Amino acid sequence: MTKVRGFRGAVDVKENKAAAILEATERLLRELQNRNRLAVEDIISAIFTVTPDLNAAFPAEAARRLGWHSTALMCATEIPVPGSLPGIIRVLIHAYSDREPVHVYLGRASELRPDLA
């Protein structure tokens, strides 16, 4: 049964440079789309958060590069919890799907949810 589902993911970024942020975000989004068999037209919205040390680019720009032109996108800064993992981009995607979500955690971000990585 097709319904709206939430798909979570995260990826680490090696440096606070626009190219690094966009490349990591594109890799994460492609992996989420592939593992969940999501077409661009299935995707309703995406909320991105970045750790406070990442401010060189908006992750939503990577989604636009992938053709997500009609998708509602929003970016925000993750709360700065002491001792939390730096250099991380997170995403919550809302999409139509008839499958259970496969969440994707790449690189060091797998430390955030070892049960799902």
TrEMBL record:
Q: Which gene encodes it?
A: aroH
Gene Ontology process terms (BP): amino acid biosynthetic process; aromatic amino acid family biosynthetic process; chorismate metabolic process
| A Pfam short name | CM_1
Q: What is the lineage of its organism?
A: Bacteria, Bacillati, Bacillota, Clostridia, Neomoorellales
Entry protein name:
chorismate mutase
Q: What does the entry list as the binding residues for prephenate?
A: R8, R90, Y105
- InterPro entries in alphabetical order: Chorismate_mutase_AroH, RutC-like_sf
Gene3D superfamilies given in the database record: RutC-like
Q: List the coiled-coil residues.
A: 15-42
State the NCBIfam families in the record: CM_mono_aroH
Q: What organism does the record attribute this protein to?
A: Neomoorella humiferrea
UniProt keywords, alphabetically: Amino-acid biosynthesis, Aromatic amino acid biosynthesis, Coiled coil, Isomerase
